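Section 3.1: Structural characterization of target chains.
Under the original work plan, the team committed to producing a structural model for every single-chain target entering the pipeline before any wet-lab resources were allocated. The record below documents one such target. The sequence was received from the expression subgroup and is listed exactly as submitted; it comprises 417 residues.
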Amino acid sequence: MKSTHTFSVSFFLRKDKAKNGKAPLFARITVDGAFTDISTKQRVDISTWNQGKQTLSGNGAEELMVREKMRLLINDFNNAYNDLRHENKAVNAELIKARVEGKDKDLCSLNFLMNYHNVELASLLELGTLKNYFSTERYLQEFLVKKRKMKDIYLDNIDNKFITDFGIYMLNRVPDKGQKPCGNNTLMKHMERFKKVFGVALKNGWTMNQPFLHFERKIIHKDRDCLEIEELNRIREVDSLKSSEMITRDLFVFSCLTGLAYCDLVSLAKKHLVKDSEGEDWIEMIRQKNRNFTQRKFHVLLLPEALEIIKRYKNHQFVKESGTTFPFVSNQVVNRHLKIIAKAANINKVITFHWARHTFATTVTLENGVPMESVSHMLGHASIRTTQIYSKVKKKKVLNDMSNLRKRLKHELWKNV
């Protein structure tokens, strides 16, 4: 089979590890310009090594043993390279090294890949996102054990049927206590995460298999839950609450007026509050969700009520000590408080904190004529398409628009009589 790769093996001394005039000898495997190093487990007298010629002078027993070790390693590397080509497998320096060390099967398994992504690449992901990947990993492992009767699987053995069977398993899985059954959109999120992780294996050359080649993402778009303006006003007016619940109410209302997600709200600090040349107050920050991928800022003009809420907590002890704008309340506690607040406001809906972001996008902005482009920027979306999915046009907006049209048509009709 004709090679489509550049492949070479060379040797070098790690002189930084030298001791008593001897340094460890390493082999370097290079494939298509990318390389990896492997120890020969031999130490060589620095004075006897010729780096340019890759040779060792002297004919003593020690030198002969090092030469033999080098020869055997070259044979092993060549055999591994040829075997990978003839097996129609991915070929790179890491896989050749793994095969010579007898670890190539581990390198090409699903468990290894998930662990590599969720541990080695963890610093590239936000904590909330990483938690979702751990969830996908857990369900894949559960599927392997319960349905495939195996603890692991090689990446080359994962095919379209594996993906389909995993999807069927998830949709029919009996949920754990306190969990909701897995619906279509939840399944699609697990599939997308699985696909992204598998993409890491493809990029690293750990497999040439592409099981997601025919995978189709099918999201069912639903209306996003939000509050009507009357409901928001009732929450504003609730005052028969404990002090911690009042803080939650103010945080929720502030988010309804600014569109801030919970994670951005709790990290909001003085440095994010800016005043422009005309004296207007703004929030200027980068979304925590995107800061590992983009440094694009979003800006939100602070409405008078939002400014009032900020002033309300200016002298709070936690705010003084932490430098944040508001006291910290955990997400779990916030959502628990919101159930109490909704009941006090006579709102028969299961409200979560994220409803505030939806309310800002629809009830506060779009329904009041704020252009979609402006709403998209304030929400920190990279694409306006995300904003279109995130918000919905409600009957009230349609009624207002059609009422204006009806008035214009009536006016034109009378004008022509």
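The two ends are 88 Å apart (CA to CA).
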